[in-house]
Amino acid sequence: MSFRDALTLIYVASLCVHFASSLPWHGSVRHSTHRRRELAKGLIFETYHPISFFETFGPGVDHPLFKRSDATLNESALSFVHSKLDLKPGDALVHASYEGSSARYAYLRQHIQGIPVANAVANVAFNKDSKVVAFGSSFLQQVPKPPSGIPTIDVQNAIKTAESALGGRHVPDNHPDSSGIQYVLQGDGTLALTHVFQVSNETTGAWFEAFVDAHSGKLLSVTDYVAHATYRALPIQKQDLTEGFEDIVDPEDMASSPLGWHNDGKTVSNTTAGNNALAYKGVQTNVTTESQDNLTFIYTQDTATVPTTTANLDAARVNAFYVVNKMHDVAYRYGFTEAAFNFQTDNFNHSGRGNDRIIVSVQTTPGTDNAYFTAQPDGVNGQIHLYLFDYTSPGRDSALENDIVVHEITHGITNRMTGGGTASCLQSLEAGGLGEGWSDAMAEWTEHSSADIADYVLGAYVTNNPAGVRTHPYSTNTATNPLRYSSVAALDEVHAIGEVWANILHNVYAALVQAHGYSQTALTDPSGTEGNVVFMHLFIDALPLQPCNPTFVNARDAWIQADVNRYAGANKCLLWKAFASRGLGVSAADYADDSSVPTGC
Ligand SMILES: *[C@@H]1O[C@H](CO)[C@@H](O)[C@H](O)[C@H]1NC(C)=O
Ligand SMILES: *[C@@H]1O[C@H](CO)[C@@H](O)[C@H](O)[C@H]1NC(C)=O
Ligand SMILES: *[C@@H]1O[C@H](CO)[C@@H](O)[C@H](O)[C@H]1NC(C)=O
Ligand SMILES: *[C@@H]1O[C@H](CO)[C@@H](O)[C@H](O)[C@H]1NC(C)=O
Ligand SMILES: *[C@@H]1O[C@H](CO)[C@@H](O)[C@H](O)[C@H]1NC(C)=O
Ligand SMILES: *[C@@H]1O[C@H](CO)[C@@H](O)[C@H](O)[C@H]1NC(C)=O
Ligand SMILES: [Ca+2]
Ligand SMILES: [Zn+2]
């Protein structure tokens, strides 16, 4: 694709945005660029996320420095972005880069007169032959005249404005990606100079990145770092806890956690606190200590008594600690490593930022019937809040429902791996929906135990309802689950949109397992050729390829490209057929289904 085409495409994309905001009947396009939500009591706020241009290149294309064997990843990425976009030196800077097992990734930010543009980002991926395989960009091609780069409103006033609008307190934070002075491109095509900082509320669990106009003093935009889960109330049908506890011996995977789960390189613990996770109640020192020497944590949960008894609380903290660590180890095997912005206290001299293990609050109060994840940039702890559910008496503890815990952890994986560790690239309504879909799909993936492709239901235990918390089971049967790509147009809530994506991924999974079989060791051995192993590789590999605020179409393209990078495209037709079976075929666009596949498939 030529330089000129890239320009045209980007221009057309921004035109669509412009029309979308003036033509209400074309409103569904706004799914991919906007998000309207209640951020704090009474504060309904619409944020703008420019469309990303995204292109994948199959076997790869050359970048300008391909003949220079000593060119670094950063230099190669910069040279490629300069060759595609009309930029002057200093207009693009690399903010993160790393080497994964099937590709190398670099993430860039546009700068105007030395000031970064918060929502103008780009990503470039290279395969093992150093060819470019994916390029995403929301860079501005025609830069509007920027307002002065010198604030007229001082940062203390900006903080006061955001604190009162968002109902929280400023969090001092030195993360360079989410603080300081930045430009923000707004939906009307103009640039604003903003003070950027974080505001949180410990009572409500809210945590925002706020952008306050440094000339007008108005709150202009926010990044909501919290991914919420909402559990719908469904008719209650009595059901016993069906899956019993087991004494699991040495579950840690030393390839992923070289010092085990209770050692961060400096401190060795005998509690539910370690390098990857801290499970606590109320205050972070309120952890569960081993019940016997040598890291034995045996606490028997009694479903007949309230979840808050000491033994039940200990069982909850131990299970949450086990699940978060186990998922750390599994995701690490498939590429969610230190360099890929994962969550660990000590990074054992690998790249990326440490001091960001996941802290898990169990039996969070006040509140019931919920669970959520707060994902912030690499180097800041991930936080899970798990609540009690009051659908039954006694109530049930979401820390004891693994699909809920895995769903929440997966928000951390997808937020960190999309866009280079910033945790700010799943913010549009559509991208937020994809996020919910990946979380359900990951929960499903971890629960398979054979090649059988049963329908999958999430959240059945805590709600005591076999239908769970979604509108339909995930299914290969279109009568059981009729959701298709076009369903997204009528949906305006992230979990509802997520159901469409999770059901598409359920069908991709089914096709891969039917074609390649099932591995019993997929959780610890990513080297297999079986369908469930292939599925998880493509799941994880696609995340760092896709652009900031991806659409369904972008996310699909990233899976197809991930298959080229890792398997030389061996699953191309299988994947296209599975996507096309739910409307996401070759010509799918703007929430219009298409069932076609590439010629030759
Ligand atoms: C590439 O850029 C990143 C982010 O600015 C930086 O941390 C890293 O050190 C750079 N790598 C090289 C080899 O210069
Ligand atoms: C946090 O939210 C609660 C509930 O909305 C509110 O009462 C409290 O004032 C907020 N805290 C701050 C620091 O604004
Ligand atoms: C700490 O845990 C105990 C039970 O072990 C609980 O009663 C107490 O409320 C917790 N403390 C806080 C501050 O939540
Ligand atoms: C856990 O470690 C602490 C601190 O090293 C020690 O005092 C305590 O006895 C240990 N607890 C058990 C049950 O081994
Ligand atoms: C704990 O470890 C010590 C040292 O390895 C060993 O001597 C002891 O038998 C172990 N205790 C248990 C209960 O396994
Ligand atoms: C990390 O590097 C330091 C300094 O080179 C070294 O002392 C330490 O042993 C290394 N740690 C690990 C876990 O490799
Ligand atoms: Ca990290
Ligand atoms: Zn969620």
Number of helices: 11
Q: What structural class do helix, strand and pairing data support?
A: alpha+beta
Give the strand tally: 19
Helical fraction: 25-40%
Main-sheet strand order equals: 3-7-6-5-4
Would you kindly provide a written description of the structure presented here, covering whatever features stand out?
The chain has 601 residues and is an alpha+beta fold. The protein has four domains: 3-50 and 146-224, no CATH class; 53-137, Nuclear Transport Factor 2, Chain: A (Roll), CATH 3.10.450; 241-417, Elastase, domain 1, CATH 3.10.170; 429-581, Neutral Protease Domain 2 (Neutral Protease, domain 2, Orthogonal Bundle), CATH 1.10.390.10. The chain contains eleven helices and 19 strands. The strands form five sheets. The chain has a five-stranded antiparallel β-sheet with strand order 3-7-6-5-4, sandwiched between helices. Strands 8, 9, 10, 11 and 12 form a five-stranded antiparallel β-sheet that branches. A hairpin with a 4-residue loop joins β4 (92-99) and β5. α4 crosses α5 (402-417), α5 packs across α6 (429-447) and α8 crosses α9 (531-545). It is globular and about 65 Å long. It binds 2-acetamido-2-deoxy-beta-D-glucopyranose (NAG) (6 copies), calcium ion and zinc ion. One 2-acetamido-2-deoxy-beta-D-glucopyranose is lined by residues 72, 74, 94-97. GO terms for molecular function: metalloendopeptidase activity; zinc ion binding. Its EC number is 3.4.24.-. Keywords: Hydrolase, Metal-binding, Metalloprotease, Protease, Secreted, Signal, Zinc, Zymogen. Its main location: secreted. This is Extracellular metalloproteinase.
